[in-house]
Every structure is written in C-alpha cells, then in structure tokens.
Amino acid sequence: MSDPEILEAIRNGRDHAAFVALYTHLPKVAHLVRQNSGSKDDAKDLFQDALVIFHRKVRNGDLTLTSSISTFLFAICRNLWREELRRRNRTLTNWKLEDEADEPADLTALLAREGEYSVAEKALKSLGEKCLDVLKRFYVLHEPLQAIAKTLGFAGEGAAKTRKYKCLEAARRRYKELLTASGNTIQHA
Amino acid sequence: MRNELELMELVDRYLEGAMDATERAAFEQRLNTEPQLNAMLLDQRSLREGLERIALRPAVTKAYQAHRFGKWKPWLGGASIVIIAAAGWTLWDRMPREAHEVPTIEQLDQLPVDPSSVAPADTTQRTIRYEVDTIIDTVYRVLENGKWRTVKERPAGSQVLADSISSQSDADAPTSSPSATRTPLPVRMEPVETKPTFPGGMGAFYTFLEANIKHPDLAKPVSGTVEVGFTISASGQVENAEIVKGLDPGYNAEALRVIRSMPRWKPGEQDGKPVPCRLQMPMQFRNPGWTRRQA
C-alpha cells in the first residue's frame, strides 16, 4: 500500500489492512533499537506505540505529513527510544544522530502530549475490568447508557451513569498519581 | 458529587464538540477563570485519548501477527508449506523411464497390459510407501512357473496386482486401487528390507525443509500441492528430481531447488545391498495471507 492508500484505509476504518502495511517499516526501527542497546521486543513495543500515535493523529485529522509515513514513524520511534534510554539511565554512546533534520518541527510538543496519553492508558489499564469496559463502551464505542446498563447488568441508565462517573474519577486520580510519579516526563507504555 | 458529575459531562460535551457557539464561548470563558475546570478538561482529554489507544491495541497486535505470519511465508507463514507424509510417499526402484517421460506408478497401472511382456528375468520394481512416519518397503515380484520370484525391475507396461499392501492402504495410494475389475497380473509388491533415510531421520528432514523452503513469489500467492518425485541413488545422492504434479512455476522451481539441495541420504537396501529408490512427496503450499489480502 502506498502512503495515501494507508491514510485512506485508516480514515475508512480499515485498520487491520493499514497496520499490516505499516509493519513493513518495523525493520528500520528494529535496527535502530538494536543498535542502541534495545532488544527486538523493545523495538516491537516501541513501534506499536508509534503506530497507535500515528493512527490517532490520522483519525483526529491533525496530522500534517511533511514527508513520508516511514519518516514520521521513524522520527517518533527515535525520540521515544531516546527517552526510554534516558529513563533506563543508559548513555547514548552509539546514538545515530545523522538524519534528525527531517523531524517534524512540532514533534517535541506532540510527544509531550502523547506521553500524557500513554500515562492515561496505564492509569486506565490499572482499573478493574468492568470499569474499563464501561468507559470503553461509552467513550469509544459510543453506546448509549441504557444499552450499557442492559449489557453489563446495571439497574438502569442512572446506575450506568454513576458507574461511568466513578470509574472515570478513579482513572483520573490514578492518572494524576502516575503523572506525579513520573515527574511529568515523557513516558510511553 | 452531583456537581462533579455534571461538570464532567459538560467537559465531555465540550470535547465532543457537542456545544453550540454560545455555550462554547461561555465554557471557554469559564476555563479562563477556573483553573480547576481547565485541569479537568486536560485530564479528561488524556483519559479519553487513553481509552482510544487501549481500544486500538488489539488491532495493532493482530496486525503484528499477520505481519509475522506473512514474514514467515517460507514455512508456515502466509503461505504455509505443509509436507503431508500421510498422503503417502512412494518410493520405487529405478523405474524404466524414457528421457523425457516420467511414468508414475499410477500411470503405469493404466497402461494396457501385454501378458507376454510380464517378467523378463532381469527386471524389478520396488515400491516403498511412507505413511506418516511408517514406511512400507515393497519389492516387486513376478509369478514364474507357479512360483513368486523377486525381480530387479518392474516389467515394462506391467500392472501391479492388488496385494497385501492394498488391503491396509486406501484410495490415496494409486498403486493399490481395487483390482476387482482388472485382470489380475502376476506382479505384486512385497515389503523390502531397508528404506532410504535422511541423515538424522525424518525429523531432521522436515527441519531441513522448514529451514530451506522460501516462498517463491510473494506477488502471486496461490494454494495447492506440488508433488515432487526424486530418486535416492545407491550412493545416496538425489537424482532425477522432477515435478509429478505441478502448481505455479515459481512453486515448482522452489520445490525442485530445495529437493536438489538436500544432503546425501543413506540409500535404501535390498538383500544387504544399496539400491536406488524413488520417493514421491506432496508439498502443500497454503496461503491464508492471500485470501486476506484479496478480501
């Protein structure tokens, strides 16, 4: 798939096809990571984070690609990996800095925000399964509260609403804790 | 809590763009003056985004598996190559063959039979069939003066009599099709002594195939079976590899390449002497990735 085709696929909800096509860019990232004291699994996790970021940006319509998708993904991975190494207190002896000129200008701002999203992701994952289910149904799948109440066995719409509120509140508390713990630095899941 | 809940819903409405211009302006006004509300907005935006990301993860993981699957096409991947031993390996001794014509036993069985051609003294045919890991070694015998005698080569144009082997095998073994409608002929198969073996055994053989078969043509994936026949000579070398039943040319070539690249086998033996044996092996190429891509 060409770059425009991938973008089109994501906009039309054909995520699987798009992701499979995007994975062709993984080897380049894997090379970078393995050159810089990371493992194959590190590379995979990193790349998957980049895929999620990319997908969300396309979906939200706030992605301005100044170069190819490959360059964009690689720039994100390079930055995330640098942060990760910093967190691991590794020195960046081997760091390949050469083609950083092609990075999107707003990458730092982007990654700061993405770092927060990723903390939020962690916070949500620490919730109970049922809580996460309620929130996902409401916010991602946009199911009406009534339907959620019925599926998950709550007394009624009101109960589902309260549950949703409590869950989100719990997630928020956890999120704040995690943010404080990480000293507000960029993190990725 | 009531108040908090309402605020939360207000923030949601704002984030969803569900407010009209007036409401929006009023809300943004509040954001400027109420840092609490502003913080709530940022948190809620992050959490909602976090939820979207969590929801995306399974698709990302699934695609990774598909990607890996595709990457390992050479073996079990998007195109998996399954070696089916169950269908039966057919080995037979040096078949009488023309330069270009490669008769299989099946073909020979269909040839018109001339009883006078049966059993010249110097001809033998040995057929060895692999069934999963059990190889049935057979030798051809002919009826001569009321006595069964082992012969070196299968008589040209002779027909195999259904025998003990056919009683335990079935329709997928071409040599053992029911002979009720045929005229029984005085040639039959019997077990032989030692089958040819791959160095290290069958396990090593499969490992060898796994390690060496590359998916030939990623752009044109098809599914199907390639049947390769080859002879393990008396010295153990692979000879006369050819396609018995072909698929796409790319797959045929790959199957032949791998078979020809095999190391030397331990030859089959009859009466303590190494003898050339022929093997026939179906290789199934499957391509789930193809259907997925087409879908």
Q: What is this structure's SSE topology?
A:
The complex is a heterodimer of chains A (189) and B (295).
Chain A: H1 3-11, H2 15-22, H3 26-35, H4 40-59, H5 69-87, H6 107-125, H7 129-140, H8 145-152, H9 157-181
Chain B: H1 2-15, H2 21-33, H3 35-71, E1 80-83, E2 89-92, H4 105-110, E3 127-131, E4 134-137, E5 139-144, E6 147-150, H5 164-168, E7 187-190, H6 201-212, E8 224-232, E9 238-245, H7 249-260, E10 268-270, E11 273-275, E12 277-286, H8 288-294
Antiparallel strand pairs in B: 1-12, 2-3, 3-4, 5-6, 5-7, 8-9, 8-12, 10-11
The CATH class name of the largest domain in chain A reads Mainly Alpha
Largest sheet of chain A: none
The largest sheet of chain B is: 4 strands, antiparallel
Helix % of chain B is 25-40%
Task: List the total number of helices of chain A.
Answer: 9
**Structural domain tally of chain A:** 2
What are the segments of chain A in which pLDDT stays under 50 over at least 5 consecutive residues? Answer: 185-189
Total strands of chain A: 0
Class from helix and strand fractions of chain A: mainly alpha
The amount of helix of chain A comes to 55-70%
Describe this structure in words.
The complex is a heterodimer of chains A (189) and B (295). With 189 residues, chain A is mostly helical. Helices cover 69% and strands 0% of the residues of chain A. Chain A has two domains: 3-105, Rna Polymerase Sigma Factor, Chain: A (Orthogonal Bundle), CATH 1.10.1740; 118-181, Orthogonal Bundle (Arc Repressor Mutant, subunit A). Chain A has nine helices and no strands. In chain A, helix 1 runs antiparallel to helix 2, helix 3 (26-35) runs parallel beside helix 5 and helix 8 packs across helix 9 (157-181). Chain B folds into two domains: 2-71; 81-295, no CATH class. In chain B, strands 1-12-8-9 form a four-stranded antiparallel β-sheet, covered by helices on one side. A three-stranded antiparallel β-sheet of chain B has the order 2-3-4, with no helix packed on it. Classes of the chains: A mainly alpha (189), B alpha+beta (295). Chain A binds chain B through residues 15-16, 19-20, 22-24, 26, 44, 48, 51-52, 55-56, 59, 116-125, 132, 135-136, 139-141, 161-162, 165, 168-169, 171-172, 175-176, 189, and chain B through 1, 4-5, 8, 43-44, 46-57, 59-64, 66-67, 70.
